Amino acid sequence: MYTPHTKADIEAMLEAIGIGSLDELLRVPDELKLRAPLDVVPALPEYQLRRRIEQIAKRDSGVDYVSFLGGGAYRHYAPSAISALAMRGEFLTAYTPYQAEVSQGYLQAIYEWQTYICLLTGMDLADASVYDGATALAESAIMAMNATGRQRFLVSRAVHPNYRAVLKTYCDGLDVAIDEAPLTDDGTTDLRVLAEMLRETQYAGVALQSPNFFGNIDTLDGEALESVHKNGAVPIGVVAEALALAALATPASWGAQIVAGEAQSFGVPIAYGGPYVGFIATTNEHMRRIPGRLVGKTVDSAGRTAYVLTLQAREQHIRRERATSNICTNQAHCALIATIYLALMGKTGLRDVAALNLERSRELATAVANAGVRLRFSAPFFNELVVDVGRPAGEVLAALRERGILGGLDLGRWYPEYSTCILMAATELTTSGEIAKLAAALQEVTRVGAGV
Amino acid sequence: MVQPELLYSKEHEWVRIEGDRATIGVTDYAQEALGDIVYVELPKPGRTVEQFGDIGVVESVKAVSDLFTPISGEVVEVNAALETDPAAVNRDPYGDGWLVKLKLKDSGEAKNLLAPRDYEKLIAE
Amino acid sequence: MSAPASDRTASPLIFELGQEGRATQYVEHGKPLRSFMPEGVLRDDLPLPDNTELDVVRHYTRLSQRTFGIDVGFYPLGSCTMKHNPKVNDALAGVREFAELHPFTPDDLSQGALQVMYELERSFCSLFGMAAFSLNPAAGAQAELAALLIAKKYFRERGETQRDKVIVPDTAHGTNPASAAMCGFKVISLKSDARGRVDPAEIRTVVGPDTAVCMMTNPNTLGLFEERIHEIADAVHEAGGLMYYDGANANALMGNTRPGDMGFDLMHLNTHKTFTIPHGGGGAGHGPLGVAGHLVEYLPTPYVVREGDRFRLDFDRPKSIGPVRSFWSNFAHVVRALAYLYANGAEGLTKVSQYAVLNANYMRVKVAEFLETPYPEICRHEFVASAQQLKKETGVRALDIAKALLDRGYMAPTIYFPLIVPECLMIEPTETESKETLDGFVAALRDIIETAKTNPQELLDAPVTTVVGRVDETRAARQPDLRWRPPR
Ligand SMILES: Cc1ncc(COP(=O)(O)O)c(C=O)c1O
After folding, report:
1. Exposed site from A407, B68, C126, C291, fewest CB < 10 Å?
2. What digits encode the pLDDT tens for the residues C170-188?
3. Which value does ipTM take for this structure?
């Protein structure tokens, strides 16, 4: 327990209130009294609760396996200075900075975060964060609907399947229909079919992800962009691996007016799925449709530079049922972590990390190809690639697991046509030794006639 | 401050009727109550609006209020200057701070509006 | 105070610091990007600053010193439950097996993480009287949205698509109506009675065949317990609607009475309020969503199930509304919340809410000596005061009181919420604060009210001890400057 109350305190306070006992203070009608004892985990002193949870943590953990898992959550190096700074109590235990005068530090950090996201995406403005990449896409779709007044949305099948599923959950609530643009045989969005769909149907927005779920560069070309413009739909760029923004042409450069992304790659622990940090960046035209908090620069009563939450009339606490979104608590602390990561790495470090990701993933591609496993696609990729193992991917992954390797994702889980394919990621943390180990194991388990 | 040559609605909008044209804004009383106006959202030209129907919103830092048109018609012009200078509504609600111009549908609707003296009474309450 | 009073020179932006090539090197240098990819897909420049680690450390340390958290001082922010965030929670969230576990790790190799989720879920079910909890939602508002999606689907499957109204009291938090709108529901706002409660008779006049959900919190946002909650729930249920419990105020009843027993069908918790998850300057939060038996099948996917002594993520739930987020939960917070449960146990949690209510009532009677308290009766974990009378007499508003508190080293209470109380100050001390801290705050507030009567200008000018004075919000909104731009 973390309460300070002594017996004498309690008595003095009850007396001041003019009431006899704590029970009286919390009196409820009879029918609301507890009828049975509560079944909650037992109370333990700190050293024992630590032991208990550390023990649970060690139960059947895959954390020490050689891992090629990616698919929207990436293992990247986070400099030690990040947690030393971000875990400072002033940051960690603050609430949303409603009182600007005693929150200038955090507000400035968020203003820096907004700026970093703008510089990386090429957009005019970015919000203070949304929950994650998937909800960033869903909220962007709602922005597009509000901008166009249309109730139909187009998304590429190469967008992360979890993002598409969340998009559907949100759209169901608003009775918005979703169409999916098909894939080419090379693991990218079929832009010809996309253009056709745009000729036939009016859409609120069109979403493409680059690098897409298969790791491939996947953007609108000039012709496709023109059909989006003719249609009147809002082009949306989805980013699940934010590190790619350090290397690739910005979403703005291929026409995106909204960028919906996930910034976990910037130093945020992978932590079994969260908390991560979604962002939405957009053009000035859509400024008042953006969901979530925004920090603006202004002055104080003496004319000094100051920061403050702004354009709040968009938000639920003021506009209630007509707000741009219901989001209140966001992912500020993860945005802070990402900001500190970007500050530490700098342009030079970020480029280096991007280059190392390109290098290791190409090393991986070469190694698996030499092991006799086919690369499924030939499109340019960032740090993930798809291999076709020629038999059910699940079997091969299980065999790799027995050899201490998490080989990647079984694409059949989301794409029945790719049930013999595995999505593999390599980052700066992937070593040549690990790649060699995987290649050897793959060769062994995919050898013709090998029982897996 | 109430202007003698205008008509008013109970929702604190004013209208100036000149032939088949009407100019609409919010009253001095309204701008005072709203506080510093930071943004005005107006209808697109070409839209037809119904008397007392909502045509947009005004935002102050901590509040949002609907705008209602005192009279029906087709929007022919909106005050684009408010986009960069919403403070004009506070500064000069009956002049530079006007909101939209309408082509009137039915000038007979004017009978549903308040004369300056009646509006003065309303805000004195 | 959060920063030395002398530190009032503007802090440059990180973009205004550094020199290209100066960044501390954390990884080996990579080859030029063009050696891996066609030039056409690459970006031209990357206009980010290069700073040494020392410069970055000083920069963000300085920013932290210009930020007020619970670790700095008393934080009586109503509705936000800013209690002490135990440090052991952070230590456990950071253990390698949790912090480095990839969300796509197969269930067989994530048993520890799944067990943590399971233990937390089961404990929540017992504590709040629900059949199941989804730990997926990232915050309270997202749980509200998920709950309303469940309601929508539930009624659709029962052929009751005419149920398109969500009832919320006028004291409700803004997320309640905003979430309803995101599910296409129309919002009916319900007037509170003179005692600040929802009158069951009033509910009966608005419920009907079009009622989908009634969203309430208990105690409500005035800090008052809705004793007649059963009658309200009965009225909504008889009309065929569902009851939703906004658990932002769960710190007032945890371990003492249960929303499930009050007749609620759906509820959320804000573990970043009640269960000591650090709020992190705005998030990340965590909003577990609880449901009664008849709604379990609709919970978002995935849901943790136990089979013998093994656990797995169940994605195959045909009636589910679907997933609401990229991955399974804000897992680091699940670990923290479970650590907090272990630190307290059932008995401890029961005491937590008792002390929270004790602290709030103690402050309420002390504050009532010099400031209007519009609902002068036993409250729960928080209470509201009003500066309306003071404003009439002196021109000093709730906002000015808030700023004056900053000058005296305290975080301000929530102001101007709930909307029905003019010049509202909503004060929530939480159970982790000592009598001495409460007395100190009350004395500061008393001093402010006296100053209002003798020297109001001092309050209108507040704050003066902070790194900046009162911030110009109007300018910020009229001329939005939302980012730094590189000089041309
Ligand atoms: C009463 C009430 N309901 C709902 C919410 C929304 O919760 P969250 O911020 O976790 O989305 C809050 C939090 O501010 C609240 O105080």
Report:
1. C126
2. 999 999 999 999 999 999 9
3. 0.97
